[in-house]
Specification:
single chain; alpha/beta; Spore Coat Polysaccharide Biosynthesis Protein SpsA, Chain A; 8-stranded mixed sheet; two-stranded parallel ribbon; 10 strands
């Protein structure tokens, strides 16, 4: 007598998507990074994990040789910026789904898996972690100043950019590789503003975007500069609006149905495996 396997399980088994996880890093906390990589390998079981390190010190590369996780490591001798590191890493990965998370582990591997699952099951082309999702849990808040700056930035971005999201900047996102082929062609921001541009371009090209609730813990050693970063983001909003307006007005995308607002994932509808 043969073993009965439900049709839904057969579909998952035969349509399994390969997953690549990218971690961009600039002088990361090595013990934290090691623990995060171990959690990602154990919980998500991706087909590839890739580190994109900017300006690493010798101790970093030596330390990474001793971890048990199979990781592709690419280094740059200068600081490219978060956006450049992600774009180069995504272009190098050869998997069906591409995901990235910040090296400080603020988004737990369990939540990164849920973000990826929205793309894997076909509910979205782009899936982003959202600290402002009503079901999210903030274990440790940012400083009051950083929270206020973030609130002002989100308020302005939602009113200027083509796609409304609650949280553009959370450092955990996933995308179908085929969608990245289109989105990446229009991304130029080299630094922290890349997240903003990525979401806005995806919406302008008509890709579905979901925001997934996360458990998030701020790290006080963040590389975000409270003077230069707000200036960078303010300038980027203007530049991204100009570029996404160009997409909207291009004859090539005249018939594209834009995504004007992200979809909030309900907790009970999430894949908790």
């Amino acid at each position: 007598m043969g073993l009965y396997i439900p049709e839904t399980e057969v579909t998952l088994m035969t349509n399994r998507h390969s997953i690549g996880v990218l971690i961009p890093g600039y002088h990361p906390d090595l013990p934290v990074l090691k623990e995060y990589l171990t959690d990602i390998a154990r919980i998500i079981e991706p087909d590839a994990i890739r580190l994109e390190l900017d300006d690493p010190v010798p101790e970093t590369t030596s330390y990474l040789k001793d971890i048990s996780v199979d990781v592709q490591v690419n280094t740059s001798q200068h600081r490219r910026g978060k956006g450049c590191a992600i774009m180069e890493g995504f272009d190098a990965l050869d998997t069906d789904i591409l995901a990235f998370a910040d090296a400080d582990g603020s988004t737990p591997a369990e939540d990164l898996k849920r973000i990826i699952s929205q793309v894997e099951i076909g509910d979205a082309d782009v899936s982003i972690g959202s600290r402002r999702h009503p079901d999210s849990s903030i274990v440790k808040h940012q400083t009051v100043l950083r929270r206020r700056l973030g609130d002002v930035f989100a308020f302005i971005a939602k009113r200027m950019l083509p796609t409304r999201c609650r949280d553009y900047q959370c450092g955990a996102k996933a995308v179908r590789a085929t969608a990245w082929g289109d989105i990446g062609h229009h991304c130029y921001e080299p630094g922290f503003a890349w997240d903003l541009e990525f979401v806005s371009v995806a919406g302008s090209l008509g890709y579905d975007i979901t925001e997934v609730p996360i458990t998030w813990k701020d790290h006080s050693d963040s590389k975000v500069n409270l003077v230069s970063t707000p200036i960078e983001l303010a300038t980027a909003i203007v530049d991204v609006k100009r570029r996404t307006d160009a997409i909207a007005n291009s004859p090539r995308y005249r018939n594209t149905q834009k995504t004007y607002e992200s979809t909030l994932v309900e907790t009970e509808g999430m894949n908790d495996e």
